[in-house]
Amino acid sequence: MIDRSLRTFVLATAVATATATMAAGEAFELKPPAAPGRPLQGTATAPAGTEWVVVFYRVAGEEEFSSFNLDAGPDGTSYAGQLEAALPAGAKLEYYAALRTPSGIKYLPREAPASFASLQLSGTPSASAGGAAPAQTPAPAQAQAQAQAGATSTPPPGTVPGAQPPAHGPIYFDGAFERVAHHQEPVPGEARNLASGQIRLAYQSEENGRQVLLNARLVYTNQPLGTQSRWSLGDLQAAYAAGNHRIQLGDMVVQESEFTLAGAGRRGLDYAYAGQPLGAHLFALNTQAHSGTEGLAWPEKGSEVYGGSLGYGWLAGNLRAKVVFLSGKDDPATAVNLASLYAPMVRDGSTGSFVLDGRFFDSRLAVSGEYARSLFTKDLLNQGTHLTDQAWRLGAMWMNGPFSAQLGYRDVGRDFGTVGVAFFVGDRRTLNGSVGFNRATWSLSATAVDERTNPTGQPGLDQAWNQSQSLDARVGLTQSLFWRVGLRHARQEAELVSNPLIPFSNSNRAGFTTGLDLMLPPASSLAFNAQFDRLRSEGASGTRGTSTTFSLGGSLGLGARVRLSPNLSWSRTLSDPGDQKTTMENAFLNADVALVPGLLGFLLNGGVSRTILVTGDVMENSVAEGTLRLFLDTFLKGRGRASLGLKGRYTHAPDLAALARSAAATGVPATGATAPMANDTQVSILLNVSY
């Protein structure tokens, strides 16, 4: 049935995307300025064919996010950009990145925009918080709408950048306590007292061209999950820079090239010399992220990579060559928060690479190439043999005024591998390209990706051919109203149509998207999106189907005291044979009301979800949560922030027997027993302190 097939397709796409993501070394970092007044540096790596990377940021205490774009490098997978906006000294930045990849929009960190990364700037802020309300997480619909449109969110008038307590440092404390005062449906052994917090060391100094950075967090929770302890360590980092020399210790993001060491969370020891025309880099890092203090200063045995690079530049730095070498052993099973559908194998080996980058014609033309060879063992536990293979890539980008074009090709051998990337995908050939026109009132972009796995047709191995194309346009109907429209097409051919890892062998997928972005003063926005997809599988299942989705979301400011973030969506999936239909409807609302500005506020979050299954059964879920907050900032005289809250939560869940009946009708095995209808209320007392 196409309904289940579509879900299988989504799952398979997610698995393939995760693998490709790791292969491409998907990562993002926002670096502090090298000197006061200098811009912040943003870098990212993304899968081939990524259309854009947008960084959303705000100063802690502000409600709205601003944004800036990262420009693609000549290799088509690396991105970089600068934040030129003036930022208050001592401010704490909260940020995340949105990426438009061939498989859809992604966020880094992956939990964004529900949570985000932070960066503490050096210095002392010039403004105190007064009674400023704590920063609120943006509605995911709003963030996604901004990301899809590539729009920039501007802080509302009257918002004071850096409106937070002075950076008393270097020790900071954040704590939260919740006491469940009432629970209509108590759970046996339920913990009524919930506490969490962190103690953070954040120190940064710059003097006489020397920079020192120390950053560490000690995290506590009285509700640990699984084998997690109540206390844990995070963000352990120390760095020292003087002139062109920089040494780092602890957690860091390090990247050399696509085929050697790709960006990821690592820890260990790292030294870099950024001179002109000569540059050098030495590293001794863990291949996987560890917990506690494991591998903090030197890699853990069995999970280490050692190596370095040496580069030289010509033509005033416009042409640079670099050689990279690394060697080590990798056991992905030792990683923190490992999530994989397959048992990871212990690997070891060495990889060498030659990288050439150039910028010509006043940087309008950028080219990049890399050739790498590896001596690699894929499975040490089963006494695999050392295999030698090669990989190479070549890419170019042309940017001139409103026009841009990019073309890239990569050929990765079947036995090529590197311990510098956790899950590297070999045995593939990929061609990708894109063109774009960007004007003040309109933009047009097109992308195409052609990828073959097992291109040489090795016996006994899966062989597949994937193609995807997209065409997107954005037109400014007025100064505040923009129209978006896009076309999508994808095709997959596979030699073994019965392989469950290739669920849509010999299939065609096509569809279109459209939407409107409305920017309302001051700093409000609404986004409407419509999407239609058609799937036809010509393999063993011979199924066809369509899916249609509508959504509306945004952020609305009603005066200076009220901000609403609605999110409405409706989707329907039709399948053939069987004429089966599944419908999903969702409505959510976030509201922030300043009852007494700077002193008393009210937060409301809630929504309703309704699903009509193929059997005709209806499942409904609804939840509403309101929090009344009393801000105590003024009583702390700018030394910290604190609030008291009274939170009420109502939950209504339907009889899950509908799900069990649907599972029986469709042949999908049930995963649990039937649960009765649940109506639950909960009241809690909250205390939040930040110093």
Protein architecture, described:
This protein is mainly beta and 691 residues long. The protein has a domain at 244-454: Porin (Beta Barrel). The chain is 6% helix and 55% strand. It has three helices and 34 strands. The chain has helices spanning 2-24, 140-149, 657-666; strands at 27-31, 40-45, 52-59, 66-72, 78-83, 92-101, 104-108, 117-120, 171-183, 193-207, 210-221, 231-242, 245-253, 265-274, 278-286, 304-314, 319-330, 347-360, 365-377, 387-400, 403-412, 428-438, 442-453, 464-476, 481-494, 507-520, 524-537, 544-558, 562-576, 580-596, 600-612, 618-631, 641-653, 678-690. The strands form two sheets. It has a 26-stranded antiparallel β-barrel. Strands 1, 2, 3, 4, 5, 6, 7 and 8 form an eight-stranded antiparallel beta sheet that branches. β27 (524-537) and β28 form a beta hairpin.
